[in-house]
Amino acid sequence: MNKYNVLKNINSFIITLPVLWILTGLFTVHNGDKILVTLTLLSLLLTLITYKFDILKRNLKNKYLLILFVLLIYSALGEVFHFETPIIFRAIATILILTLFIPYDLISPKRISIYSLIGSIVSLSFVSYNIFILNIGRGSLDINPIPFSTYLCVLSVLSLVCFFCICDTKYKIICLLSVILSFIAVILTETRGTILALIITLALFAIYFIIKRSKNKKKSILFFIVISAFMVAISFPVLKERLYDRTAYEFSLIEKGNDGSSIGIRLSLWKAGLIIINKSPFSGTGNNFHNQIRTLEKDNLIYKNKRYDHYSHFHNQYIDIAVKWGVQSLIFLLLSLLVPLLTLNKEDDFTKISFYSLTSIFMIAGLTDPPLVNKQLFILFFYSTNNDVW
Predict the structure, then answer these.
(1) Closest residue by Cα to residue 20 from 94, 103, 109, 111
(2) What are phi and psi of 86, to 5 degrees?
(3) Which helix (H) or strand (E) holds 335?
(4) Is the pTM of this model over 0.85?
(5) Contact residues for 153 (Cβ-Cβ < 8 A; gap 6+)
(6) pLDDT digits (tens, 9 = 90+) for 190-245
(7) Are 312 and 365 within 8 A, CB to CB?
(8) DSSP reduced 3-state for 39
(9) pLDDT by residue (tens digit) across 259-306?
(10) How high is the pLDDT of residue 100?
(11) How far, CA to CA in Å, does 10 sit from each of 17, 22, 148, 169, 257?
């Protein structure tokens, strides 16, 4: 490899550093989103030096830019007029810059598979070190395990899509390894909502690719069964204890009138949220909803529990957004998630299935947590689905 090619590769690597960071350090490093801003500015500068405004002219044709501009204006108005919005201005501004200036031809499925593997290794190492070396339980991790596990789900489904779309055997092995490592990391976080979201999404899209793309369906089905059996076997203790036994036990408590379990509290929060929405569907409470929950407790409309004050959301993305920012914000969220799906018919399988799988993860995970209110997950989702990177 000559000197020119070496410099060209280094240049390409630096330009794509924000993408690498989104898939690796954004969640595991403190203030990872602030570091992303610095990397984005560096990438922007190098892109302008290398390509001038050619990339901008090309990327302005992106059909999802309108969504990003609307979100940017909405968040900017919130900053100017001091009203609360679920959109963080710095996050949406970063996404917009990347969408406008990243040269998409530098980001191939092979590069994504390598970056996803790095992210899977880093994440699994982080979780394993905390749990097995420091003996720290999931509730005491330095990072919130629920959004972190949602991020791991994204790594896993992206790797699976890359596995089916790449023909090179070496990269297929990389993708498969990334799927397994990120799956194990999700299991170790013991977050039931994201485990369920991941299993459903992986199974659905593996079946889709086997039916639509596989040349040897019998061989593909056998391979799918073997890999699935292996992943279930290594995760069986957690799946049985956390997903089945614990869930069954908590539902038995609810049947006895005890709503103090994890599921019971969530159901009470959902009920409280629906009551608040019904009383004030459009005004929204912002983050000042605890007084209303206390009022509902006093009126015996929900189960009394001192732990409500410790929750900053309703453990349901759709209820949470409608309560805090009004039903109109929920409608806007659903449109942002679902309308782009209708535009994918002409896209290639890699783009289409990546989009479907990521939306599936965030919509299913949103039943038990508000992932898109988390700034890191917001960046991950809207950057990866509102452009042609994947």
Answers:
(1) 111
(2) -80, -5
(3) helix 327-338
(4) yes
(5) 182, 186, 194, 197, 198, 201, 361, 365
(6) 888 999 999 999 888 888 878 877 777 888 888 888 888 888 888 888 888 877 88
(7) no
(8) helix
(9) 778 889 999 999 999 999 999 888 888 878 889 999 999 998 888 887
(10) 93
(11) 10, 19, 30, 25, 62
What pLDDT is recorded for position 147? Answer: 92
Q: What pLDDT digit, counting tens, does each position of 345-363 carry? A: 666 667 788 888 999 999 9
DSSP string, 87-118: S-HHHHHHHHHHHHH--GGG--HHHHHHHHHH
Residue 387 predicted with pLDDT over 60: no
Q: How far apart are the first and last CA of the chain?
A: 28
Q: Is the dihedral of CA 345, 346, 350, 355 positive or negative?
A: negative
Residue with tokens 């992106």: 62
Q: What is the rounded distance in angstroms from the CA atom of residue 390 to the CA atom of residue 377? A: 16
Q: What is the mean pLDDT of residues 13-26?
A: 94
Please tell me the distance from the alpha carbon of residue 131 to that of residue 122, in angstroms, as a whole number. Answer: 14
Q: Are 111 and 350 in contact (CB under 8 A)?
A: no
Q: State the Cα–Cα distance between residues 351 and 358, nearest whole angstrom.
A: 11
Which phi and psi angles does 344 have, rounded to 5°? -95, 0
By C-alpha distance, which of 75, 243, 162, 306 is closest to 251?
Answer: 243
Q: What span, in angstroms and rounded, lies between the C-alpha atoms of 20 and 215? A: 33
Count of beta carbons in the 10 Å neighbourhood of residue 343: 12
* Cβ pair 363, 337 in contact under 8 A: yes
- Is the pLDDT at 76 greater than 60, yes or no? yes
What single letter denotes the amino acid at residue 48? L
Helix, strand, coil percentages (3-state) for the chain, rounded to 5, are 75, 0, 25
Closest CA to 388 of 15, 19, 14: 19
